[in-house]
Amino acid sequence: MKNKFLKTIVALSAVCIAFYSCKDDDTLPVDFDDLINTGVPFASEITTNGSTNVNKLDPGSSGFSKDYQLISPAGGTDISKVEVYVSIAGQNVTAAEALLTTLESSSFTNADGGYPEVNIAYDGASIIAALGINAADLEGGDTFDYRLALTNPQGTFSDVSANFDNQSADHTFSSTVVCDSPTLPAGDWVIDMQDSYGDGWQPTTGNGGGPGITVTLSDGTVIEIGLCTPYEPPGYPCTTGVSSGTATITIPAGVSGDWVFNGDFWGEMSFQIYGPSGSTVATGTAGSGAGPIALNLCNE
Predict the structure, then answer these.
(1) Of 263, 260, 282, which Cα lies nearest the Cα of 272?
(2) Residue 15, SS3 per DSSP
(3) 57-87 burial, b if ≥16 CB within 10 A, otherwise e?
């Protein structure tokens, strides 16, 4: 009887070991001894400096950088270089992945005596040049995809499952093509608004606080936009209707402006903004958090 019990325990243990050893490596911490044997290095992002968007209208004005900590079982000291590759996921443009930059170990820093760190700078003009494409072929919403490759004596690695020291690998990221202009296109702008609950949103109280949409122009004009209900105070610059409505505002020539959505507390509000040409330049979906509205002016 005792032998049968022991055999059962051994069998169950074997099943458990087989089950966990067959799980995807990405779901389990990497064993320290395994890292020593494989020598796989990885990069852990520390900070992103600046917006990662690339401005189609002026690529050279688009710049950002990222700081990484370089980690390996050898304390990162065996990493000889970091390469950055870029590819494009475009609506009207395709290109093969290209090498964007290479940073040798001589450019790594180690100010605190820990793992080495590296700062990688990006600019829109260099990204476009590396891919051999024309900025005119880009569309708003296209994405540039970046891949880091780290080299040490064991080889070059881009896709690693790394939870060593409870950190995560940051070998890929993306940036988005936008069209930022120093001035807004002049003319009539149309804002379509919806409220799924049907009680609207006030321009000066919003749905849960704050104006629905506020446009602040560089000439000092402030425009508040909301989807009004019957209880709107008189004189508010907003539309009629409850579940849906449209507002039209006129932007004069030569001004810039900041568009801000003040939040959707109840998850009911959505909107679409159309520029003077009639193209869609921004959308907001139900549940959108408060913050600046990014306008896509690529088709204006």
Answers:
(1) 282
(2) helix
(3) eebeebbbebebbbbbbeebebbebbbbbbb
- Residue type, position 261, single letter: F
Q: Is residue 7, in this structure, part of any structural domain at all?
A: no
Q: What is the pLDDT of residues 265-280, one digit of tens each?
A: 788 899 999 999 998 9
Give residue-wise pLDDT tens across range 232-243. 665 555 666 678
Residue 66 DSSP label = E
Nearest one of 77, 67, 154 to 116, comparing CA atoms = 77
Domain boundary among 178, 205, 227: 178
131 and 191 assigned to the same domain:
no
* 215: CB partners within 8 A, 6+ apart: 221, 222, 223, 225, 249, 257, 258, 259, 260
Please provide the DSSP assignment of 69-85 as one string: EEE-TTTTTT--EEEEE
